């Protein structure tokens, strides 16, 4: 559990480097992309020192590190790029809340990258840390595999304005890819919620309650990831940082609108799921009311019949009707009259 992971750091001084995440982390992989208007190179490195030497002022460098489970490697990264100890601590604390911190020479952002398996209804999420400098962006992920492949292809082929822009535009593009992927997830979840609504109305089953609660838990998880994204981008727009150009702020406004849209969609789905649960409870209640109505009608019909049967079932020697030959069929005629009469009355009252 999250609290069990974070508890590893209790009592330690600020800036202590303790990895908070899954123990079975993958091998560390470092990929570097250098580019400018008419130039592009891509390589895989094993040495962090080589990464620092490659960074130059006339190109934009994107250093992507997959695997942050080694505190020693993160400490070395901090020394090479002069990162604050609290930044290194937040990189290792993969259960932290998304946020943005501004330092003298760089910006540090913590984001949540999410993937969704529609078959199992399970999330696969990881933390993405971004260090944005004047001519470089360092992205740190918990494991290999991300949503940035379309961005890599744009850099390789020189599409759009990515190669003509600086590191701030690259940081914007990374945030935009993460936020846009939320829409893909919300689209899948939205389709499942629509199916859930139809199923609740047509065939309400007890198993649906578990699915509804699971979906509501997913919305809470998405809300924790999406709402801070809006705050992060709003802070970038509000603060007059030299690391963000005015041209990139225009693009950030678009991401900000997308983040608001994601947050509002999450809230809408939460309300819909609450309504679906109400529909289920109402359907179950109505079904129970129908059952109780049928039982009440049956009981009401048999009350007078039971009374008559009880009277003529008493063991008295002198009962006038017992000596009459027509008494038995007359009693059955009375039974049928009461039965048919009550049914007709219930029908007239629209109780049947």
Task: Give a written overview of the molecule.
- The chain is an alpha+beta fold and about 350 residues long.
- The protein has nine helices and seven strands; from the N terminus they run H-E-E-H-E-H-H-E-E-E-E-H-H-H-H-H.
- The chain folds into two domains: about 280 residues, CorA soluble domain-like (Beta Polymerase, domain 2); about 55 residues, Up-down Bundle (Methane Monooxygenase Hydroxylase, Chain G, domain 1).
- About 55% of the residues lie in helices and about 15% in strands.
- A seven-stranded mixed beta sheet has the order 2-1-3-7-6-5-4, sandwiched between helices.
- The protein is rod-shaped.
- Strand neighbour order, sheet with most strands: 2-1-3-7-6-5-4
Q: Give the count of structural domains.
A: 2
Shape: rod-shaped
CATH class of the largest domain: Alpha Beta
Largest sheet: 7 strands, mixed
The number of strands is 7
Counted by DSSP, the helix tally is: 9
Give the second-level CATH assignment, the architecture of the largest domain: 2-Layer Sandwich
If you consult CATH, what is the topology of the largest domain? Beta Polymerase, domain 2
User: Helices and strands, in N-to-C order?
Assistant: HEEHEHHEEEEHHHHH
CATH superfamily of the largest domain: CorA soluble domain-like
- Structural category: alpha+beta
Rounded radius of gyration (Å) = 35 Å
What percentage of residues falls in helices of 4 or more residues? 55-70%
Mean pLDDT equals: 84
């Amino acid at each position: 559990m999250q609290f069990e992971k974070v508890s590893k750091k209790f009592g330690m001084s600020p800036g202590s480097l303790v990895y908070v995440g899954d123990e079975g982390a993958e091998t560390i992989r470092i990929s570097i992309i250098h580019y400018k208007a008419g130039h592009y190179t891509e390589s895989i490195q094993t040495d962090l020192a080589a990464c620092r030497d490659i960074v130059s002022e006339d190109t934009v460098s994107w250093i992507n590190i997959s695997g942050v489970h080694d505190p020693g490697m993160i400490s070395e990264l901090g020394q090479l790029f002069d990162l604050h100890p609290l930044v290194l601590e937040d990189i290792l604390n993969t259960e932290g809340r998304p946020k943005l911190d501004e330092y003298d020479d760089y910006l540090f952002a913590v984001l949540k990258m999410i993937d969704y398996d529609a078959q199992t209804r399970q999330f696969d999420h990881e933390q993405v840390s971004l260090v944005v400098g004047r001519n470089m962006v360092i992205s740190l992920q918990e494991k290999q595999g991300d949503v940035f492949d379309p961005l890599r292809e744009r850099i390789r082929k020189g599409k759009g304005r990515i190669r003509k822009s600086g590191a701030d535009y690259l940081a914007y593009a990374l945030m935009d890819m993460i936020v846009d992927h939320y829409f893909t997830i919300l689209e899948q979840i939205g389709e499942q919620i629509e199916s859930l609504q139809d199923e609740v109305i047509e065939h309400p089953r007890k198993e649906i309650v578990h699915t509804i609660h699971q979906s509501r838990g997913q919305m809470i998880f998405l809300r924790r990831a999406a709402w801070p994204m809006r705050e992060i981008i709003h802070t970038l727009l509000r603060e007059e940082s030299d690391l963000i150009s005015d041209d990139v702020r225009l693009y950030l406004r678009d991401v900000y609108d997308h983040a608001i849209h994601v947050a509002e969609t999450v809230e809408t789905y939460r309300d819909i799921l609450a309504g679906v649960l109400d529909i289920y409870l109402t359907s179950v209640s109505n079904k129970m009311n129908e059952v109780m109505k049928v039982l009440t009608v049956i009981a009401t019909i048999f009350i007078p019949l039971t009374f008559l049967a009880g009277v003529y079932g008493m063991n008295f020697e002198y009962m006038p009707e017992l000596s009459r030959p027509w008494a038995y069929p007359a009693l059955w005629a009375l039974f049928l009259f009461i039965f048919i009469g009550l049914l007709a009355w219930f029908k007239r009252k629209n109780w049947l």
